[in-house]
Amino acid sequence: MTKHAYDEFRALHRAGAPLLLPNAWDHASAAALAAAGFRAVGTTSLGVAAAAGLPDGTGATRAETVRLARGLTRLDALISVDVEGGFSDEPGDVAALAAELADAGAVGINIEDGRADGTLRDAGHQVEILAAVREAVGGRLFINARTDTYWLRGEGRTASETGERLEAYRGAGADGVFVPGLRDLRTIADLTSALGATPLNILHAPDGPSMQELSKAGVSRVSCGSLLFRAALGAAVTAARAVAAGVPTVAEGVPSYAETQALAGGGA
């Protein structure tokens, strides 16, 4: 990815005017989002994994993730790739993956510290991974460092540990930080204040704070995560049941055959 694209993507992260990053799971979903005017599109690890019949968060979808990223960079959109924990515990391997994505034309990478067994990766080791990625792609890929301190509620993690991890990840070279599962607006505002110019990414939740509330709290990026993928699954089942029941299906918002076929093209 060019330095210009990296700078453009970074500039979209504005405290008080957060970037809404929708997350796609295949080429058509990403192309539809780009055509709808979303300048930046992320991928969802759950969507990519489930669509391939594989488990999420276990490091099983490296090939699928890279293959998808290579296809998505043909779109007129800024593409950020969710790589779970990097598909490896070796800093060099994760750095090589990041370089591969940057060379393919991606503009961002999301790396989490949550592990498949429900625990967190040692913070010091996560710092080594992020530092290796920074050395390999600094200034080419926007490194979004995710901590699952709130996501893994069973861990009993505290706000203080979250702050410590985010500070360490910033020190390792992360461009932005991500705390999925965090919904308390006061805690979010405290974090944005402590982070200063470092963008804070929050995961949208239908029953959580609104975009307006997150904006007032100083958030710079709001991700949809797997929501769009799960919504599409629900809509597909609902439509099938309507057909089976002889109930007229709602056509509003459903792309035509020709419109869907057009998404296979190289542009948005």
Structure report:
- There is one protein chain.
- The protein is α/β, with parallel strands linked by helices.
- It contains eleven helices and nine strands.
- A nine-stranded parallel sheet has the order 1-9-8-7-6-5-4-3-2.
- The longest helix has 19 residues, at 227-245.
- The radius of gyration is 18 Å and the shape is globular.
- The mean pLDDT is 94.
Q: Tell me roughly what share of residues is in helical segments.
A: 40-55%
What is the averaged pLDDT score?
94
Per DSSP, what share of the residues sits in E-state strands of 2 or more residues? Answer: 5-15%
Strand order of the largest sheet: 1-9-8-7-6-5-4-3-2
The end-to-end span amounts to: 18 Å
Query: What gross morphology would you assign?
Result: globular
Radius of gyration: 18 Å
Give me the secondary-structure category.
Answer: alpha/beta
Largest sheet: 9 strands, parallel
Please report the number of helical segments.
11
Show unreliable segments.
none
* Series of H and E elements: HEEHEHHEHEHEHEHEHEHH
Question: Could you tell me the number of beta strands?
Answer: 9
